[in-house]
Design a protein that fits this description.
This protein has twelve helices and 65 strands. It is mainly beta. It has a domain of 334 residues: Ribonuclease Inhibitor (Leucine-rich repeat, LRR (right-handed beta-alpha superhelix)), CATH 3.80.10.
């Protein structure tokens, strides 16, 4: 989709809410004392502590006003966040959660002179990587210590184990570590512990058995995402007072449930993303008090029986469960509040209300002809996204009185969107379905709605954006990729300061939404694939200077130049497919993804690009940029994955600054004026998959030293000045992953490299199946190849697409039959060389071959009858050779025309006019003969798509272009438009 996923945003939001909720709760316990005034030494220590920090007053640090209000001369016991002992006035409680503290805590901090502290909460501040001082172990009366999420760094000191009266310990954060020695001391000495939270603490070197002797008073154990390895002790579940266990996201943690003597008091269990074996039978039999069950991506034993009836929160997502959802299992849980079954393989439809039931709220499964439960009126959260559910959305979902979050995205639901009566709805996601009709009016009246995602459906209609004006709480809106037409006629004075995410891609917009000028918190903006024809307005360039992280204005008709980009935190910029001019704009150093292809930018790349140390993808292709390529790509060695400078006017040599450990995956310099030789430093690019250096002026011999690159899939050196023979491989298994090799239009000579053909493993037997493409999340690889005589830009490269093109060189000698081992090969072009000998009959074994061009060589002998077995062959050219004998007939050979055979005076039989002397006559072709059309690449300009047996064979090569987006115009650039129109006419 291109922008931050909804659930990542929701996670950030919910995390902030948790912090604020925790802080608010803690604050209520920090009551003001009565009695003696604050002890003067404590008052002085607190002020000194305050003055050692900067105080950041932002929305995130929601309680920064606590410490800001502290003033000298005032009773510190009346200060917010401070609790004093009534009789002595000593400070015994300090709650500075989310207090906006920024700075370091040193071991000589005045904080450690508050020797009477019993409760200390410093969570959710920024201590800039300070170590957790051993001085924290000096608070001998401490009962509650919370240092979580405050940017501490380094090991947890063993002195924490000196806090013998500690009841609650929270050190959660990803930047601290805990070793076995310190953990053992904590477990041994802190015998009063009831709550332990070490979420995200790196305990990769800790043996999980160290936890088996924890205090018998333990009620809460939170150890998620701690990098545990090994077997977790079963004895933990025998703790008599245990209420909560969270071991989630310890991916290498294994273990089993004990079969008896479980804690009957356990209320919450989270084993998500662990390898602990979950036995449904023991789980449901022993955990009678269970309320919250989180088993996302787990290993299960047995099928789930009836669940404990008091469950309120259930997460069984991402477990590959299939079949129909067992509605009766879940809907009969009267207390059910949250149900997450997303990321499974569930099929079927929702149950409907049984109108004949004595209860108006009974749900009926018509496929099974039975009641499955009652409408879950307490349900607040229902996540069913990423399944295969079909049918329509039932009306009862819109009437659930408590529903707050509904996610049905990425299914196969159809029909209209239902009306929603529930005013509690806060989040609604219905994206990636087959829903049609208009946006229901009721959705536009949900005043509590925070996020709304209706993208990638078939919704239609004209929508005036002012109709969303009632959604004053909305911070995220995605209407992209439907058939909507949006207008902003009455929004000149409308403002939406709370808006953080807006995606209106493919919404038929003709102007920039002016109301965005007053959206200071905007983080994500996508207006791509619209028809905006204008300069980028100045107010947009000033929008969200501190907040904007993602901007996509691609596929419009934007014109003019762009001034300096001042977004400080931008990480994604997409301006491709417009008509922008002038110098190349360079965003802030924080930017990781830059797409500016298919514009009209000129001049050299500004040297400021060298400051983008986090750059991962840089695509400047199809512009008019010139000059030399900066050597500073060395700066990007640890981050840059894609460098695409295709079709510009760069000159000079290819930079040699490829350092060890770089992560470069795609290097495309095709269509420039580069010269010199290939830099040997390319050998350091061990992640390289695509290397396209075609259409330059590079003068070198064949770079056989590239054969050792373990992941290279595409090698294009076409139309350069490479010369000489291709020698024997230097490694045992050269070019094992290679799918595409194009050496055409160079000066290579000598024999064909048979030894290389023997080792092209990916072409011998491709293991890739289905519609998989080369590339990653933000970038899919592009390549221009000659397919059946047409130079075609493939916007997506299917993993099973394999071709060899050695045309227009001076290779000599015979064609080895070893090539017939390349069973996965789709296209083979040896045309315009000096090859001799015969066509190997074994070529008839290459069952996947779709085009074969051997034209303009010196081949002799006949055309092997075995080639008739190539039922996928759509284009065949052996013209301008010295072949003799009858042309094979039958199957695909009945579709080839004169041009495939012209220039071979010894050939006879249809479609040629020359008859054979033997009584071997071909059947008339069903196509009208046409004049020969010779092309420089060996194929004529016409492509005839005719099938064998079952009718027309469209050919995978055309399928490559259509399947990706359904519209060939989005995917191909064809040299020869008349020929393309003819192809598409035939395929239609």
């Amino acid at each position: 989709m291109g922008w931050l996923s909804w659930f990542y945003l929701l996670f950030l939001l919910s995390t902030t809410c948790q912090f604020n909720s925790t802080c608010s709760s803690s604050n209520s316990s920090s009551s003001l004392s009565s009695g003696h005034l604050c002890h003067p030494e404590d008052s002085s220590a607190l002020l000194q502590f305050k003055n050692s920090f900067s105080i950041i007053d932002t929305l995130y640090y929601s309680y920064s006003n606590r410490i800001i209000s502290w003033q000298k001369g005032k009773d510190c016991c009346a200060w917010s966040g401070v609790t004093c002992e009534k009789m002595t006035g000593h400070v015994i409680g300090l709650n500075l959660c989310s207090g906006g503290l920024q700075g370091n805590i040193h071991s000589n901090s005045s904080l450690f002179s508050l020797g009477h502290l019993k409760r200390l909460d410093l969570s959710s501040n920024d201590f800039r990587g300070s170590p957790i001082s051993s001085k924290f172990g000096g608070f001998v009366s401490m009962t509650h210590l919370d240092l979580s999420y405050s940017n501490f760094n380094g090991p947890i000191p063993s002195e924490i184990s000196h806090l013998s009266t500690l009841v609650s310990l929270n050190l959660s954060q990803a930047t601290v570590t805990l070793d076995t020695l310190s953990l053992n001391r904590i477990v041994q000495n802190l015998t009063n512990l009831r709550e332990v939270n070490l979420d995200n603490v790196d305990m990769s070197l800790v043996v999980p058995d160290s936890f088996k002797n924890l205090s018998s008073s333990l009620k809460t154990l939170e150890l998620s995402n701690c990098h545990f390895r090994g077997k977790f002790p079963e004895s933990i579940f025998h703790q008599p007072n245990l209420r909560l266990v969270d071991l989630g996201y310890n991916y290498n943690l294994i273990g089993y449930f004990p079969e008896s003597n479980w804690s009957s008091l356990l209320e919450m269990l989270d084993l998500s993303h662990t390898r602990i074996s979950v036995d449904w039978h023991h789980l449901t039999r022993n955990f009678k008090s269970l309320r919250d069950l989180y088993l996302n991506n787990c290993s299960f034993v047995g099928s789930y029986p009836a669940l404990p009836g008091n469950l309120t929160h259930i997460d069984l997502s991402s477990n590959s469960f299939g079949g129909q959802i067992p509605w009766s299992l879940f809907l009969n849980l009267e207390s059910l509040v949250e149900l997450d079954l997303s990321g499974n393989n569930y099929v079927g439809q929702f149950p409907e209300v049984d109108c004949n039931s004595t209860s108006n709220s009974s749900l009926y499964d018509f496929s099974k002809q039975q009641l499955v439960g009652r409408i879950p009126r307490h349900l607040t959260t229902l996540y069913l996204h990423e399944n295969q559910l079909n049918g329509t959305i039932p009306s009862w979902l819109g009437s659930l009185p408590s529903l707050e979050h509904l996610d049905l995205g990425s299914n196969q639901l159809s029909g209209n969107i239902i009306e929603f009566q529930s005013r509690s709805l806060s989040g609604l996601r219905l994206s990636d379905n087959k829903l049609d009709g208009q946006i229901p009016r009721s959705i536009l009246e949900l005043g509590n709605l925070h996020y709304l995602d209706l993208s990638s459906n078939n919704l239609s209609g004209n929508v005036e954006f002012e109709k969303f004006s009632k959604l004053q709480s909305l911070w995220a809106l995605n209407l992209s990729f439907n058939h909507l037409s949006l207008s902003f006629n009455h929004l000149r004075n409308n403002t939406r300061p709370q808006l953080e995410l807006l995606d209106l891609s493919y919404c038929n917009i003709s102007e920039f939404p002016y109301f965005l000028r007053a959206a200071p918190n905007l983080n994500t903006l996508s207006l791509s694939h619209n028809r905006i024809q204008a300069n980028i307005p100045k107010w947009l360039l000033d929008l969200g200077k501190d907040s904007l992280g993602y901007l996509d204005l691609s596929h419009n008709s934007l014109t003019g130049t762009i001034g300096p980009l001042r977004w400080k935190n931008l990480y994604y910029l997409d301006l491709r497919n417009n008509s922008l001019q002038g110098e190349l704009p360079i965003p802030s150093p924080s930017t990781s993804y830059i797409f500016i292809s298919n514009n009209q930018f000129t001049g050299e790349i500004p040297p400021t690009i060298c400051s983008l140390s986090s750059l991962q993808i840089l695509d400047l292709s199809n512009n008019k940029l010139s000059g030399k390529i900066h050597q500073c790509i060395e700066n990007f060695s640890q981050s840059l994955s894609v460098l695409n400078l295709r079709n510009n006017k760069f000159h000079g040599v290819i930079p040699s600054a490829f350092s060890e450990g770089n992560v470069l995956r795609n290097l495309d310099l095709n269509g420039n004026q580069l010269e010199g030789s290939l830099p040997q430093s390319l050998l350091t690019c061990r992640e390289l998959e695509v290397l396209d250096l075609g259409n330059n002026k590079i003068q070198d011999t064949f770079p056989n030293w590239l054969e050792s690159l373990p992941k290279l899939r595409v090698l294009i050196l076409r139309s350069n000045k490479f010369s000489g023979e291709i020698c024997f491989p230097k490694t045992k298994f050269p070019f094992q992953k290679l799918h595409i090799i194009d050496l055409s239009n160079n000066r290579f000579s000598g024999l064909l490299p048979t030894k290389y053909f023997e080792n092209l493993t990916a072409m011998i037997n491709s293991q890739e199946h289905g519609l998989k493409y080369m590339g990653g999340r933000y970038y899919q690889d592009t390549v221009v190849v000659t397919i059946k005589g047409f130079e075609i830009e493939m916007k997506k490269i299917m993993m099973f697409f394999t071709i060899i093109d050695f045309s227009n060189n001076t290779f000599r000698g015979e064609i080895s039959s070893v090539i017939s081992k390349l069973k996965s090969l789709k296209g083979l072009n040896f045309s315009h060389n000096e090859l001799t000998g015969t066509i190997p009959p074994s070529f008839g074994e290459m069952s996947n071959l779709e085009w074969l061009d051997l034209s303009s060589n010196k081949l002799i002998g006949d055309i092997p009858e075995q080639l008739v077995n190539l039922t996928s062959l759509e284009k065949f050219n052996v013209s301008k050779n010295r072949l003799v004998g009858p042309i094979p007939h039958g199957k695909q050979f009945d579709t080839f025309e004169n041009g495939s055979y012209s220039g071979n005076t010894g050939l006879c039989g249809l479609p040629l006019s020359k008859t054979c002397s033997a009584p071997h006559q071909s059947q008339p072709s069903s196509f009208q003969q046409e004049d020969d059309l010779e092309h420089g690449n060996g194929f004529d300009g016409k492509v005839v798509l005719m099938g064998y047996a079952s009718g027309v064979v469209f050919g995978i090569s055309v399928g490559y272009l259509v399947l990706s987006n359904g519209t060939p115009n989005w995917l191909v650039k064809v040299v020869g438009r008349k020929q393309l129109r003819r192809i598409m006419k035939i395929t239609k």
